[in-house]
Amino acid sequence: MKNIPSIHKSSSQPQKLAALRQAHQDWNNTPDVLTRLTRRLSTTLSLEQHLAILAEELGAIVPFDTLNYRHQIGKQDFVYTTGMGGPHRCEYRLSLEGVNYGILVLHRKQRFSEQELAGVEMILSAAICPIRNACQFIAIEQASLTDSLTGIPNKRAMVDALQRASLLSERHGEPYSLILCDLDHFKAVNDTHGHVVGDHLLQIAAAELEKAVRTSDSVYRFGGEEFAILLPHTPEQDAKDVADRIRSAIAGIRIDAGEKELNITTSCGVATFLPKESSQEWLARADEALYRAKHQGRNCTRVFATIS
Ligand SMILES: Nc1nc2c(ncn2[C@@H]2O[C@H](COP(=O)(O)OP(=O)(O)OP(=O)(O)O)[C@@H](O)[C@H]2O)c(=O)[nH]1
C-alpha cells in the first residue's frame, strides 16, 4: 500500500488562513486592472462577453472610439464591433504559440501615443489566454453540432433548429416545412461496393442536397443514410416541390464504381408545422410520411397533409 503523507498541523496555519483571507479580499476589491480583467474574463466562456469586458477595461485606460475584432472559427466568421470608427488605428494579430486567435483593431480621432500602444499590448497579453479558450469553446461547440463524415450539421443541431423553428412558426404564423429524406437500399451499396464507396456517396449526397435548396434552408444529417431539410417560410406544396427536386438531384448522382456506374434514389417525407404541436410531433409526422414513401415503392415523396 502506498504511504500517504500526513498533513501536519502547525502553528502557522491560522496565519496562512488569515493571509489567504486577505489575499482573497484584495483579489476581489483590487484596483489592479490586469487582475480585475483576468478575473472577469474567467467568469465566462462566451467570446462576445470576453470582448465586451476587454473593451470596457481597455477603454478605461486607453480611450478609443471603435474596437473591431474578427476571427474565422471553422465555418463561422466571428465579428464583434463597438463604436463608430475614427481615422487613427492600431491593429493587433492575437496569437498564442503560433496559432492565430483573431485580429483586433482600435480606431479613434487622436493618434495613439507610444505609451498608450504599450498599454494596449499589456492588456491584450493578459487577455489572450482567455480569448484562446473562448475561441476553442466555439470550435468544440461547432464540432459537437457537425457530422464528421459529411461536414453538414448533425442530428443534435437539427433538434435544436426544429425547436427554434416551431417557436418562430407559432409566433409569426409563418409556414415552416420539414423534409426527411432517406437513401433507398443503401445497405446494398455498402454490401456491394464497400463502406468506403458508401461513405463517398453520403458525402456527395449531402453536397447535392445543399446545392438543391435555398441558402435560407438548412440540411442536416439525421442518421446513417437519412437527411433532414428545414425550410423556413415554405408551405406544404412548395416543400413537396423541393422534395421532388431533391429526389432528382440525388438520382442524378453518378459514381464510378468499377465495372458500372453507381446511382441511387431517395424517398422523402414532408410535414409542415401545425400550430400547437411540439417539434417532436412535427418530426414524427415527417417520419410517418417518409415511412409511407418507403412502403409505397420508394423513390417518391409523401406528404403528411395538414388538411384532411
Ligand atoms: N458507408 C456508410 N454506411 C452507413 C453509415 N451509416 C449507416 N450506414 C448504413 O446504411 C445502411 C442502412 O440500411 P437500412 O436501414 O437497411 O436501409 P436501406 O438499405 O437504405 O433500405 P431502405 O431505407 O428501406 O430503402 C446500413 O447498412 C448501415 O450500415 C455511414 O456513415 N457510412
UniProtKB/TrEMBL annotation:
This protein's GO CC annotations: plasma membrane
Root EC class: transferase
Gene3D superfamilies in alphabetical order: 3.30.70.270
Superkingdom of origin organism: Bacteria
UniProt cross-references to InterPro entries, sorted A to Z: Diguanylate_Cyclase, GGDEF_dom, Nucleotide_cyclase, Rev_trsase/Diguanyl_cyclase
MF GO annotations: diguanylate cyclase activity
CDD domains per record: GGDEF (cd01949)
Cofactor(s) named in the record: Mg(2+)
Catalytic activity field: 2 GTP = 3',3'-c-di-GMP + 2 diphosphate
Transmembrane region(s): none
One of the protein's GO biological processes: negative regulation of bacterial-type flagellum-dependent cell motility
The enzyme's E.C. designation: 2.7.7.65
GGDEF domain span: 174-306
Region (Disordered): 1-20
Name by which UniProt lists this protein: diguanylate cyclase
Organism: Marinobacter guineae
